[in-house]
Design a protein that fits this description.
This protein has helices at about 20-35, 40-65, 75-94, and strands at about 5-10, 15. The protein is built from three helices and two strands; from the N terminus they run ββααα. It has one domain. The protein is mainly alpha-helical.
């Protein structure tokens, strides 16, 4: 997430050092590791809530940086949030 806020100048263009998809990928990896460490529903819900929170933060960051990102990143970030919310709802419904 920190890399999303860091830029590098290439000629007259500012380039972000991180990509939103990298944040998503690592958040899912972290989520899966947390879920693998426990069979308890409460732990799974807590892990999913953490992932959901990270995706909301990512969406806010993408919105703030939309001028430096490809246009596809805004709907992609919205998808990450919706997916995280769905996963959380499914776990709570079990």
């Amino acid at each position: 997430m920190e890399a999303l806020g860091q830029t590098k100048r290439r000629g007259a263009v500012l380039v972000l050092l991180g990509k939103p998809e990298e944040v998503y990928t690592w958040s899912v990896r972290w989520l899966n590791a947390q879920r693998d460490m426990s069979d308890k529903k409460d732990d799974h819900i807590a892990a999913l809530e953490g992932h959901f929170k990270r995706m909301k933060e990512l969406q806010e960051k993408v919105t703030d940086l939309r001028e430096l990102l490809p246009a596809v990143e805004t709907p992609a970030a919205a998808w990450y949030v919706a997916e995280a919310e769905l996963w959380l709802a499914k776990e709570k419904a079990k």
